[in-house]
Amino acid sequence: MKKSVDKATLQMIDQAGDQGVELIWDRYEKQLPQCGFGELGLCCRHCLQGPCRIDPLGNGPTVGVCGATADTMVARGLGRAIAAGTASHAGHAKHMAHTLLKAARGEAPDYPIRDEGKLMAVAARIGIATDSRSVNDIAADVANLALAEFSEKETPLTWAATTVTKGRVETFAKLGVVPTGIDSHVSEMMHRTTYGVDADPVNLLLGSIKCALADYSACHLATDLADILFGTPKPVVASANLGVLKKDAVNIALHGHNPLLSDIVAQVADDEGLNNEAKEAGASMGINIVGICCTGNEVLLRHGVPLATSSVSQETAMMTGVLDGMVVDYQCIIPALSNLAECFHTRLITTMDIAKIPGAEHIAFDEANARETATQIIRTAIEAFKKRNPAKINIPEVSTPAIAGFSTEAIVGALGLLDAEDPLKPLIDNIVNGNIAGVCLFAGCNTVKIPQDQNYLEMIKELAAKNVLVLATGCASGAFAREGFMTSEATNQYAGDGLKAVLTAIGEAAGLGGPLPLVLHMGSCVDNSRAADVAVAVANKLGVDLDKLPVVASAPEPVTEKAVAIGTWAIAAGLPTHLGVVPPVVGSKTVTEILTATAKDLLGGYFIVEPDPKKAADALYEVIVERRKGLGLSA
Amino acid sequence: MTRIYVNPERCTGCKTCELACAVQHSKDKTLLGAITQTPPPQKRLYVETAGGVKMPVLCRHCDEAPCLNSCITGCLYKDDNGYVRRKKGRCIGCWSCIMSCPFGVISQDNHQHIAVKCDRCHKLDVPACVDACPTKALQLVEDSELPKEVRHSVVLAAAGS
């Protein structure tokens, strides 16, 4: 089984093999074959009379003990996955809102409001008065309005209603899927999928879409507040892949999702005293902070912190033998890290009281004493550095530059260099004239089921050659960064002529001395709403709805329930959305048909399930051409 | 000769073997292919439960096979490996084999008037059911190895008592 196409990762996999150390791919092989009922979504454990399975081949039971059909079972399972994904983003977003409120009240001195411009823009958008009011008062109002989004409201979610097109609002209202409470929709989905509640697959899917739109709101809210607290990302040059780990430095990896922890550690790591402590311990280069997964993206975009690795290959950072501390918050942190850390000197440090791992040490993170906690974490890693085993050091000499930091504001800013009066005009003109055929947002993870990065690389080469502008978030960004696709060189090598001309014009206007990178890194996985914002701005400018735009999305190597929630709101936003892994829904013909076909009539967006990357790229390009024709544009 | 050995203590009743069996007897031998095939493929082994025990029940490919002896058309035969198999087109659906099988592991085809039974996945080194079992409740063992393993467990039991 091919495990990865990334050179550095493969080197670490070999190293693990030589040392008899088990990695995620080995554990996957031991799981094979995986349960066919589970693969199809035909297993239900929602009550104590189960587990029930439905025989997909009709030789056995066609309904569960309660009479739930395959359609009911699959729709309930999908609904719960979306609820779990929404709960994750809700937790992240609420954490951010509580911190903003504490910051506004002066109870979190380590969290000053770093982006007043963004605060004012968000306040204006959500209807909070800003004239002659203090920054803290406005921030408190924004935080309180944000916190009110989580319980059941009598009105639509502000973060949904104020950020989508009018056409979307009408479509959601018509289908009865307007979200009114982030946590309440998670709760509602758990209620309607429990024993003896909602059995109608269509009704369950509509409920799932409503829950996914709550997820969208949570994502958008989290991004807005992160920008207010830590700054809206601007283009930054960094580097990516395991070669960013340094033999002569105390290496600390920030792994997880929320910038509340990682941003502070990144700030504190600049402290001269701490760097001197590291040097005294023998690390001549001082402290070297690197990122893993999405919190890595957060600090990459805001501080230029290099990205060591992401997602499926998170264990490989420890395999280098030079990782002194791995600090984690929540989401995508695999518990196997704890066992692996025992093979090395690495200290695995959990920080969130809701996310502990047996074998890891827990340093509880608290916003009131953020810098103090970060200092303690860094000192723990300096201690660990002294216990390194030189015999185990093996750092792949692989790293590539990556230009990142393309928030919506940064993209509009770059376009403004071409037309300051009307920044969106150059983008729209180039879409109209065909220099840019369309836009594809790559999102999602890396999965053990697909050789790491393979689908990303094959798809981008196909699409960029056909002049499709590529945006990326989350671990999709990680893949493109480490494979060298966030560079001007990649644009020169892979972009079609039209796309190359546009990226070059903007890049040169921005003083890059070459084109913009082939992939615009917009942020972490919670930041997918940034891409939605760009699409909404273009749609509003053109006076059409999102489901008419030549804009598509792809999660070619998805893993998490969060990805399921994001994919579902993407189709609700009108985007045809590709999945490179068959989701556990195909046990129901009805549900599969609705998600891949009927959704097109109802929402404009729909799922395209295609494991083959070449065929997937072709399918997405066909959609782009079809939509261009719909707008009266040439293919 | 190898035989499929069933260890009921390890069986969790997950029915993965049943699914793998049906998939192996589908046209393109994949799960997605199997669920979209019409008519759907059929399993040849059966996970049963009684008295708190769960276990797959499957064809033993008996040396003196009652099904083969009762087959009136000469459809069932013993191949070079000793597996009891069917000749294509010879079954008339008299169900003699079903009635004579002491294990109850021959069934009527759901869509044609013929009997279906285990063919020991004769083209595969390891039968699909054995390969699929996540707990190794199904194992492929050499006839000669099995008594040795049993003797070993008898000694182990004696050592423990």
Outline of this structure?
The complex is a heterodimer of chains A (635) and B (161). Chain A is 50% helix and 11% strand. By secondary structure, chain A is of the alpha/beta class.
Give an overview in words.
The complex is a heterodimer of chains A (635) and B (161). Chain A has 635 residues and is of the alpha/beta class. Chain A has 26 helices and 16 strands. In chain A, helix 4 (70-104) packs antiparallel against helix 6 (135-148). The model of chain A has no long low-confidence stretch (mean pLDDT 97). Chain B has a two-stranded antiparallel sheet with strand order 1-8. A two-stranded antiparallel ribbon of chain B has the order 2-3. In chain B, a hairpin with a 6-residue loop joins strand 6 (107-108) and strand 7 (115-116). The longest helix of chain B is centred in the C-terminal third of the chain and has 16 residues, at 145-160. Chain B is globular. The chains are: A alpha/beta (635), B alpha+beta (161).
Helix and strand pattern of chain B: EHHEEHEEHEEHEH
Category from helices, strands and their pairing of chain A: alpha/beta
Strand order of the largest sheet of chain B: 1-8
Treating each run of at least 4 consecutive H or I residues as one helix, how many helices of chain B? 6
Share of helical residues of chain B? 25-40%
Rg result of chain B: 17 Å
Please, what is the average pLDDT of chain A? Answer: 97
Label the overall shape of chain A.
globular
Read across the widest sheet of chain A, the strand sequence of neighbours is 6-5-4-7-8-9
Average pLDDT rating of chain B: 93
Percentage of residues in strands of chain B: 15-25%
> Proportion of β residues of chain A?
5-15%
Helix/sheet category of chain B? alpha+beta
Q: Which residues of chain B form runs of ≥5 with pLDDT under 50?
A: none
How many H/I helical runs of chain A? 26
